[in-house]
């Protein structure tokens, strides 16, 4: 029994150390970009050896993947006790933008990596391809639900509308990162969502 407890304790300690490395890497990558940071710098921030980092992550590319997935896990997610869907879900996307506004360094990292990852050889390429596919699918699903409920126009193309919504969200993030004193990302996105839904609920035929 004591041996089993020891193994569980060792496993938990390993998971805690792994998360500590990921958080440190996220902070360094966000502050200085992924390319500029070495595994030795991550190790120094955590207070362990380079070999200690390599024990958990065989390469910087592997660590980057862990950082990206970790950030997804701790990002804003819907409250399971207050599930919403359709038009309400689209309106609630403003909360995600407001959440992102609280962590500009992380958003800068993701904006930079998403552009660099257009190169198929970039270590984050597959991650961002999958991430955008999932995001488009989620938004399109909610728009399809709104359409079946009669909350938006029957001639709405959910997939095309989802692409427009995500493009606006990401475009405003870049403008905000470049000029935060003059771009109110949250307010601008909220106004867009209002106009977006007004258009989708109008009775005029789509051109």
From TrEMBL:
It comes from Yinghuangia soli. Pfam families: TetR_C_6, TetR_N. InterPro entries: BetI_C, Homeodomain-like_sf, HTH-type_TetR-like_transc_reg, HTH_TetR, Tet_transcr_reg_TetR-rel_C_sf. GO terms for molecular function: DNA-binding transcription factor activity; transcription cis-regulatory region binding. Residues 15-75 form the HTH tetR-type domain. This is TetR/AcrR family transcriptional regulator. Residues 38-57 bind DNA. Keywords: DNA-binding, Repressor, Transcription, Transcription regulation. Coiled coil: none annotated.
